[in-house]
Structure formats: C-alpha cells, structure tokens
Amino acid sequence: MKDRITIQGRDGAFGAYIARPKALPAPAVVVLQELFGVNADIRKTCDELAEQGFLAVAPDLFWRQERGVDLSVTSEADWQHGLRLYQAYDRDAGARDVKGTVDAVAKLPGCTGKVAVLGYCLGALMVFLTAVRHGVDAAVAYHGGDTEKYLGEIDGLHAPMLMHLAEEDEFISKAAQADIKAALAKKSNATVYSYPGQNHAFSRHGGAHYNAEAAALAHERTNEFLRQQLR
Predict the structure, then answer these.
(1) Which residues have C-beta within 8 Å of that of residue 203, sequence separation ≥ 6?
(2) Quick one: what percent of the chain has pLDDT higher than 70?
(3) Is 81 a catalytic residue?
(4) How many distinct structural domains can be found in the chain?
C-alpha cells in the first residue's frame, strides 16, 4: 500500500511518501532523495523496497525551502531548480530531519522498531552525516557527493555502513573516492563497493547513465545487507 504521511520532526512537521509491504510488522528503510525531491525515481525505490519486505519511507528533505518538490531528471529547467535547492540546503538541519524521521518511523504501526537509512547523492551524504552525528541501525549510501568533506567526523560512525561508488563519477573525483575508501577502510563496520566504468547515478531509474547490470548488483548487495542488519 502506497500513501503519504506527516512526520513530526525535531524542528517541524513535513510530508513523506510511504510504501508498506504485504506482511507486517517489518523493518523500515528511510529513503533519502537526490536534488530532485521525492520524485518518481524515489517513490519507485520505496515501492521496490516494500516488495522486498521493508516498510519504506521517503521524507521531504527540502520542506524548509519548498514543500513537495517533485522534479524530472530529464528536464533541464528541473535540474537547475534542483541545483538551486541543493546549493542552499542546510545540511546540519537536514541531518536532524533525517534523525527525526528515523525516530518517527520506528514508532509507526507495523514497524519492528529497526530502521535503516538509504540515500542517493545528496541523500547519501545525509545518510553519512546522520549516521556519524546521530546514530542509526544501518546505513546505505549510493554515490554521496561531498562526503569527503566530512571525513573528519568518521569516528562517530558506529552503525554498519554500506557505500556504493561509481569509479567514473563525474561529481566525485577519483581523489575524493580514494579519500573516502581510505577513511572507511579503517572502520570494521563499513564496506565500500566500487563499480568500474560506471558514472554518477548508475542505478537511477531511467537516468542517463543507468546501467542495469551494475544497478542490479548494487541492489542485491544492499538488500542482503539490510536483511542482515535489520533482522
């Protein structure tokens, strides 16, 4: 069942998309958006997680700037709109919003109380920041831009973390990827997978660089990780 709910966060209330599995109770996954908001791609990701047996919730991260952002990845105007929101986004406040979402989702009827966070690009960075600053049950990050800027906070990472990096990512340099890998290699609870020949957002539904084989491999690894950590 697909629906929208309101999350009462630490700093205010905001909307979220929710997809429920057929069998409840179930562990939950909070899905964090790219700069396009809670769009068709993110909603489909939630639906797929629900099909895998997870309660999936995607909060509106841009609610302070503009509520209900839903942008197309194929529209240049939407790209520019999303970039403006991305550049003005308050990451510190955003991490509080994600933690507030995790806390609220853990208490939802039908949730076992176990909650992971999973995100893409901006959302992946917010996964990292939330995990190191506030703590979560498990964390999954797909090509998180600017993660290298926050590696000084790596000691705060206590949750199991899975990170996917595209080797030819046009937004995360090879030097930045090397720094990320080196930092996470020091954490026994972190695993990094690198995808040769892949560009940024290789797993985005309908994206310009979508690669079915690499996306399937990443999602298989993610689902196995989530089942292990949330059982």
Answers:
(1) 120, 142, 164, 210, 211, 214, 215, 218, 219
(2) 100
(3) no
(4) 1
Instruction: Look at strands 111-120 and 138-142 and give their pairing.
Output: parallel
Q: Which residue has the tokens 């030097």?
A: 175
Task: State the pLDDT at residue 207.
Answer: 82
Closest to 142 (Cα-Cα) out of 205, 61, 200, 70: 200
Q: For helices 91-106 and 122-133, what crossing angle results, to 10°?
A: 70
Report d(CA 188, CA 179) in Å as an integer: 16
Tens digits of per-residue pLDDT, 129-173?
999 999 999 999 999 999 999 999 999 999 999 999 999 999 999
Identified catalytic residue from 81, 169, 209, 219: 169
Residue with the two structure tokens 């909650």 = 115
- Domain housing 131: 2-230
User: Domain containing 68 — which CATH number?
Assistant: 3.40.50.1820
202: which DSSP letter? T
The one catalytic residue in 134, 143, 164, 200 is 200
- pTM, to two decimals: 0.97
pLDDT in tens, 75-104: 999 999 999 999 999 999 999 999 999 999
Active site residue 200: yes
